[in-house]
TrEMBL record:
Pfam families: AraC_binding (PF02311), Cupin_2 (PF07883). It comes from the Bacteria. This is Cupin domain-containing protein. GO terms for molecular function: DNA binding; metal ion binding. One of its GO terms (biological process) is regulation of DNA-templated transcription. Residues 256-302 form the AraC-type arabinose-binding/dimerisation domain. InterPro entries: AraC-bd, Cupin_2, GPI/OXD, RmlC-like_jellyroll, RmlC_Cupin_sf. Residues 69-132 form the Cupin type-2 domain. Signal peptide: none annotated. Keywords: DNA-binding, Metal-binding. The lineage of its organism: Bacteria, Pseudomonadati, Pseudomonadota, Alphaproteobacteria, Rhodobacterales.
Length: 321
């Protein structure tokens, strides 16, 4: 593989293309300044304006959300896994029918495997622009977003209507629902009763891993973060590992699976037969199956990254036990 070919598989943080109209709350005060990024796969964006950096998916999607201070993402749910780690800033995640069932604050490097099937939202509670990176289960990321009814009603009051086809229509631009397409129906009370109000103690215990704990666990080998035998036991269709300076492979290796490298801290040198590339914080690299390569920090100082690989598990509900 030539360096030019590999560069098409690397999405640089500085090259990320945002979309400010990705979701139904794009005009709702308090949520109207957020930016959505689709890095690998189309994600769950509801806007035709969304730019997709790498269209082919490895069994899951990679995306990101960028928000200024006090900006929030409205309550929604997914049918497959949604995993976030904080790249920049300080974030509050909250969940439940009205967002009051519980909350947890994540610092830079922390990771949150949000339980499938609960309403969740998040906001930047830091003092600067923040960024969280996302992993969504499934090639089609579960077919879209399920919004809490009040989110759909608030959006309609501010000019955005979500069609039952999953597409957004902006009345401020003169757009209307096409003939034969109705608005997305609101969930009934019976349907809403099926969304759990997961206790905060359970969420913090089973679904959250802290950056400095992972640094300690990755002293001699990669720390298993998400997987059947990992710190956060789950089978969402992918596995997540955490690598630090001391846990890298001592020699060249190749995997029979897709390997997605998401740099958290430091610069990392990726070398293969045919070239080399340096990955910086916020960069995402899709290493193809079967490629023999080495991975090592490129300079002194703190170095860490998350590695995501696909598995044969169905991209279904979050599983623990």
């Amino acid at each position: 593989m030539t360096p030019q070919e590999m560069e098409t598989r690397i999405v640089r943080y500085g090259d990320l293309v945002p979309c400010k109209t990705a979701f139904i709350d794009a005009h709702t005060p308090g949520s109207d300044q957020k930016e959505n990024f689709t890095i690998i796969g189309g994600g769950v964006s509801e806007s035709p304006d969304q730019h997709v950096h790498i269209k082919d998916t490895p069994g899951f999607n990679i995306g990101a959300a960028g928000q200024p201070p006090k900006c929030r993402n409205s309550l929604h749910s997914h049918r497959t896994a949604e995993v976030f780690f904080v790249l920049k800033g300080r974030w509050r995640f909250f969940w439940g029918r009205w967002g009051t069932a519980g909350e947890v604050v994540l610092e830079e490097g922390d990771i949150f495997n949000i339980p499938t099937g609960i309403f969740r939202g998040f906001e930047n509670i830091g003092t600067d622009y923040g960024m969280i990176m996302a992993i969504l289960g499934g090639d089609d990321a579960g077919g879209g977003v399920i919004w809490a009814p009040q989110v759909i009603e608030d959006a309609r009051d501010h000019g955005l209507v979500l069609g039952e086809n999953g597409k957004l229509y902006d009345s401020k631009k003169g757009e209307t629902l096409p003939d034969g397409v109705g608005p997305m129906p609101l969930l009934s009370e019976a349907e809403l009763a099926g969304f759990p109000e997961t206790p905060v103690e359970e969420v913090v215990r089973d679904y959250v891993a802290r950056y400095w704990d992972l640094m300690a666990l990755s002293g001699k080998k990669p720390a298993k973060v998400i997987g059947t035998d990992a710190l956060l036991r789950d089978r969402p269709g992918f596995e997540v590992e955490f690598l630090s300076r001391d846990s890298i492979a001592p020699s060249a290796y190749a995997l029979d699976r897709h390997e997605i490298l998401m740099v958290m801290r430091g610069h990392w040198r990726l070398t293969w037969d045919g070239g080399a590339a340096t990955l910086a914080p916020g960069d995402t690299c899709a290493v193809p199956p079967g490629l023999t390569h080495t991975l090592a920090p490129a300079m002194t100082g703190e170095a860490s990254l998350y590695r995501v690989t696909n598995t044969a598990d169905a991209a279904g509900p979050t599983w623990t036990g």
